[in-house]
Amino acid sequence: MMSQSLHRLFLAILSVLLLTVTAASAAADSTLTRRSAIGGDQLRLVSPGDIFQLGLFSVANHTKWFLGIWFTVSPEAVIWVANRDRPLNASSSGILALSGRGDLVLLDAASNNETVWSSNSSAAASNNETVWSSNSSAAAVAQLGDNGNLMLADAAGAVLWQSFDHPTNTYVSEMRIGKDVETGAEWSLSSWRHDHDPSAGDFRYVMDTRGSPELHIWRKERKSKTYRTGPWNGVRFSGIPEMATYKGMFEFQFTDTADEVSYMYHASVGSPPSRVVLHESGVIQRMVWNSAALGWSIFWSGPRDECDKYGVCGAFGVCNEVDAVVCGCVRGFRPRSPAEWRMRNASGGCVRSTPLQCGGGFYGLRGVKLPETHGSSVDAGASLEECRRRCLANCSCTAYAASDIRGGDGGSGCIQWCGELVDTRFIDGGQDIFVRLAMSDLATMFDGIIRGKCPMYDFETIRAATGGFHPENEIGRGGFGIVYKGQMQDGQKIAVKKLSTNNRVQGMKEFKNDVDLIARLQHRNLVRLLGCCIHYSDRILVYEYMSNKSLDNFIFDLRRRATLSWKTRMDIILGVARGLLYLHQDSRHTMIHRDLKAANVLLNGEMVAKISDFGIAKLFSNIDDNQDSTVTERIVGTFGYMAPEYAMDGMVSFMQDVYSFGVLLLEIVSGRRNQRNFNLIAHAWKLFEENKSLKLLDPTVRDDCSHEELEQAATCIQVGLLCVQESPSQRPQMAVVIPMLSQQQVPRRPLRPVVCMPVSTRDDHLNRQEDTSSNFQMIITDLEGR
Ligand SMILES: *[C@@H]1O[C@H](CO)[C@@H](O)[C@H](O)[C@H]1NC(C)=O
Ligand SMILES: *[C@@H]1O[C@H](CO)[C@@H](O)[C@H](O)[C@H]1NC(C)=O
Ligand SMILES: *[C@@H]1O[C@H](CO)[C@@H](O)[C@H](O)[C@H]1NC(C)=O
Ligand SMILES: *[C@@H]1O[C@H](CO)[C@@H](O)[C@H](O)[C@H]1NC(C)=O
Ligand SMILES: *[C@@H]1O[C@H](CO)[C@@H](O)[C@H](O)[C@H]1NC(C)=O
Ligand SMILES: *[C@@H]1O[C@H](CO)[C@@H](O)[C@H](O)[C@H]1NC(C)=O
Ligand SMILES: *[C@@H]1O[C@H](CO)[C@@H](O)[C@H](O)[C@H]1NC(C)=O
Ligand SMILES: *[C@@H]1O[C@H](CO)[C@@H](O)[C@H](O)[C@H]1NC(C)=O
Ligand SMILES: *[C@@H]1O[C@H](CO)[C@@H](O)[C@H](O)[C@H]1NC(C)=O
Ligand SMILES: *[C@@H]1O[C@H](CO)[C@@H](O)[C@H](O)[C@H]1NC(C)=O
């Protein structure tokens, strides 16, 4: 803390609110000025509301005295110092006066009234002698405001000079930090040398106007930058997300015009005293007066941590404070010097893994303090999409980001970097930057899963094929995202699944899963994946087009249901069964679908059924170890199709797909949905027990059925009931289901199936299972089915 004593002797005598210094009446004689000056022990000004005081203070055993302004509540909180480099030896010798030239001056009476400090306002207003003519009525007023500003105004009220234009180590509410672009004048902070020496120290806090403006801390002698706030993003500095938490207390104002680039804050009416100080150590701090504790609370400090140290991870490095080793490279880059990185010196930065030819794509780095914008170009008028296009078209563009985060859709405005990205860090509440990478590097980002398996499609091609993802081309929608119909230039029809980006982690995981699994599978009854596309936040899968959409559109629609003959239904049932059998045991990679339902069975132009949506499928690479069952980490699936042992205990087995198949089969036969208010299984079982199972058959086909077809339908229903047996061991394997359906094998008589529907948090049965189910997170993709 500052050791400091203040001169308070004549506080009682001087209750003046403002000091008026009358300028020379005759010639511009300094003596006249001195005559009307105040000095010595009387040297004290108090702002109208007694918020601030101006006077002489000492920080070194009463041997050095400075003219300064401080908070009345906290006299050691000096916000401004006049004579920081030339102290007075004694408080009694100080005289504050107005020179005939219009300068506010501090004179030293002990040294022949020598000027130890001058506002130099006449120099600033040089070449204009009229202001300070010998006109007897010309007068100047020096006044200390309640905002802490010492203002010198002429008789007409025009401000000739103000302390706010000459900050020392502190800024307060309404005080600018920045640059006058026209004159080159700067409003910047410079730290004290020591806590007992207010002369200019090592550090400066200045506005950098190259690229997108931001504030920097510089270490003077070394001419090195130590900290950046990150560029202003319309709301706050990119690297100070804390600013968003000051709502109601402070408002921030950023001016970026042809004349001026500056930043200031406004404290709301009634909020406590506050200040921002650049300390001797090079740390800048926002402090707010805590009247209860009679001390200053620290709201924010910069640099706050290792990652805030300028350029700690070098070019194309990214710092992450939560990692054990804070420095990493942007995806697609590797350390330039691995040996130095191993010794924890990452300042050499990173280099591209794959040299960039023109083209490529963008990798979205999310939640960062934007890198330094020197050499970047800024266009506040462009949209983010326009920004992407421009960057892609300009071979020297290495990254882009929104210059203003306000508004939806990731913000607006455009910053384009064309060289290295320096001083990027992850930070809570940070922004997104899109870094250009070679297409091949983008592809490897999927952990090599896609590599060589999923042909990469160009985003523009997909966009054109879907008419810009036009709503008219939308053919499906769900938790996973939106499916569009599209047509390639050669006329080929495609289905484009644009995965929802609002659930990024899960979306990515399921995207990978889907791609991984489906790329390995080739079967007539599985939807074929044609390719993939990565467009920063978007993950897109391109499938063969299924012109008759999903099965649920047919079987649950009264009118369209009638167009499905029994033969068509039987073909669909057998198709699904074959597709499932292939998944379970015929493919090289045995897997469980886990979300089989009518909405996930698609139909092509010939009404061939194909299973889709492998997003939550589970792959067993070594099926022998997992033959029976295994416990999964979270429950996924759709109400009505979920096997009870899975819904309650999270037991994963092939039999859960068999259960879903049984439900689906009964739905296809009956044209009715298994749902909360209609338990299809219980209904089917009741009819079956009463020897009236054919009553379940959809009336729209029943009358057209031949005798053989009716027999086939009865078998179907029996197989369906077998598939939904409560105990998984009572259910037939898919390998057995198919011969039974094709009447090559006689199904046994089913026992009473599951008739109470699983999966309801209010279900008593489930609550009793709480101990085992509490480890699982319930995720029901579609509660009522669709
Ligand atoms: C210094 O100024 C004061 C006030 O104007 C005056 O009284 C004093 O005589 C001056 N001293 C000298 C040495 O000029
Ligand atoms: C103040 O005086 C004491 C005792 O003379 C001395 O030890 C100390 O260094 C002085 N402090 C400053 C800031 O000069
Ligand atoms: C102030 O004190 C310093 C050091 O004691 C001395 O060198 C200087 O002459 C003094 N100045 C005045 C005006 O007395
Ligand atoms: C005022 O001008 C003089 C002479 O140009 C200079 O030495 C001094 O540092 C200036 N003072 C301030 C406070 O700018
Ligand atoms: C000089 O001062 C006069 C009166 O305040 C003002 O009208 C004029 O614009 C000034 N000229 C310059 C060059 O600053
Ligand atoms: C002095 O000021 C008064 C009022 O501002 C003005 O009317 C007068 O012309 C001025 N005289 C000179 C010599 O500038
Ligand atoms: C750290 O690495 C940089 C760049 O590779 C090098 O210039 C610097 O000397 C290294 N610093 C230390 C302390 O090894
Ligand atoms: C490409 O970007 C650089 C840097 O932003 C810019 O200087 C250059 O003019 C741009 N070139 C074109 C053709 O737009
Ligand atoms: C299925 O799609 C084909 C081709 O688009 C169409 O001709 C046929 O009518 C559709 N079938 C049904 C039942 O809608
Ligand atoms: C259903 O048929 C079986 C065998 O034909 C018979 O044993 C049973 O009694 C019948 N049940 C009903 C309710 O008619």
TrEMBL record:
Alphabetized CDD domains for the sequence: B_lectin (cd00028), PAN_AP_plant (cd01098), STKc_IRAK (cd14066)
Keyword terms of this UniProt record: ATP-binding, Disulfide bond, EGF-like domain, Glycoprotein, Kinase, Nucleotide-binding, Receptor, Serine/threonine-protein kinase, Signal, Transferase
GO CC annotation: plasma membrane
EC number(s) on file: 2.7.11.1
Pfam families found in the cross-reference section: B_lectin (PF01453), PAN_2 (PF08276), PK_Tyr_Ser-Thr (PF07714), S_locus_glycop (PF00954)
Localization: Membrane
Gene Ontology biological-process entries: immune response; recognition of pollen; response to other organism; signal transduction
Top EC class of this enzyme: transferase
InterPro entries: Bulb-type_lectin_dom (IPR001480), Bulb-type_lectin_dom_sf (IPR036426), Kinase-like_dom_sf (IPR011009), Pan_app (IPR003609), Prot_kinase_dom (IPR000719), Protein_kinase_ATP_BS (IPR017441), S_locus_glycoprot_dom (IPR000858), Ser-Thr/Tyr_kinase_cat_dom (IPR001245)
Domain Protein kinase: 469-741
Main localization category: membrane
Disulfide bond recorded as keyword: yes
Protein family membership: Belongs to the protein kinase superfamily. Ser/Thr protein kinase family.
The protein's name: Receptor-like serine/threonine-protein kinase
Species annotation: Hordeum vulgare subsp. vulgare
Taxonomic lineage: Eukaryota, Viridiplantae, Streptophyta, Embryophyta, Tracheophyta
